[in-house]
Amino acid sequence: MSAYALARPLLFSLDPEVAHRLTLKLLDTGLLVFPRIAPSPVPAMGLHFPNPVGLAAGLDKDAAHVDGLARLGFGFIEVGTVTPRPQPGNAKPRLFRIVEKKALINRFGFNNVGVEAFLRNLERTRWRGILGINLGKNADTPPERAADDYVTGLEKVYAQASYITINVSSPNTRGLRDLQNDESLDNLLRKISGKRKELQDKHGKRVPIALKVAPDLDDAQIVAIADAVRRHRIDAVIATNTSVSREGVEGLRHAAEAGGLSGAPIRARATAVLGKFRRALGGEAALIGAGGIMTGEDAREKREAGAALVQLYTGLIYRGPDLVAEVAEAVRRYRQGSHQKGDGGIISQATVKEARR
């Protein structure tokens, strides 16, 4: 039995948000030792990832625990969501476990220290791996000004980021998901793309941009979002965020709580959306699979659906650090099998198309 399996009953006896903070503090001590993950390089978004397993945004909202999290062996780490101004998020309690289904419901509401303090935290970070920064808008910013918040965030974090994620899919900020709609998304991505061009000239580097989408999209929305991604030369799509559906947890304790559902119950839905983006984009943007990865086999499923990279969050809560190594090994074996079959794997195909852009 792993050390985490032994510790989990104690952690699960605590309030979920308290357990979250305690775990991060333990990682920060550096006293916990984890096995080294063998390199398995992956090209995506014009970057070279040491392995394809990443930490999803939301676990370290303030970029205050990057060094501790890096010890788990991730190939990349995404921090945030960060907003231009600090905000407390929604009232507590706002994080709930549905243990029977290996699920969480959260309604944090982009609680964070604001971009200035966030960047100060990053300045203290020693880790120099691939860092994604997830951007959102402040809750009190009106919808017609939402793009301004993202542009401000982009300008602030550009120099520090390996890539930047535009989060328009959290269900916990009123009106945020409306930014996925045709006209709103086109306007947002046009402004983001224009600002990136300015920042690229200023800093002498092109930082890739990813768009994080919901698992609750219909087919028409997926096609429209893919068209906007292609039109504005967005580098990647992260599929997916949490779900407003309660399918698979109906009637269970906490299932009626407001917020986004994550974990095992959304795996199939998130993977289906991932596969539809693969077909809609035809390799013109990298795909990052997230949502419901609880085992190495779940990650393999994401790869088969088109993901170049995968991200973990809720699976870590239930499985602990061993999941990182398990997923890395499962994806490595999948890639080996793909190369042996002579198809080159999903990533190399996407890389060829990216090089033509």
Descriptive notes:
The chain has 357 residues and is of the alpha/beta class. The protein has a single domain (3-356), classed as TIM Barrel. The protein has twelve helices and 13 strands. It has helices at 3-12, 16-29, 66-70, 115-123, 146-157, 182-203, 219-231, 267-281, 296-305, 314-319, 322-340, 345-356, and strands at residues 42-44, 47-49, 53-55, 76-82, 95-98, 103-106, 130-135, 163-167, 209-213, 236-239, 260-263, 286-289, 309-312. The strands form three sheets. It has an eight-stranded parallel β-barrel with strand order 3-4-7-8-9-10-12-13, surrounded by five helices. A three-stranded antiparallel sheet has the order 5-6-11, with no helix packed on it. The protein has a two-stranded antiparallel ribbon with strand order 1-2. A hairpin with a 2-residue loop joins strand 1 (42-44) and strand 2 (47-49). Helix 7 (219-231) crosses helix 8 and helix 9 crosses helix 11. The longest helix has 22 residues, at 182-203. The protein is globular. The N and C termini lie far apart (48 Å). The model is unreliable at 344-357 (pLDDT under 50).
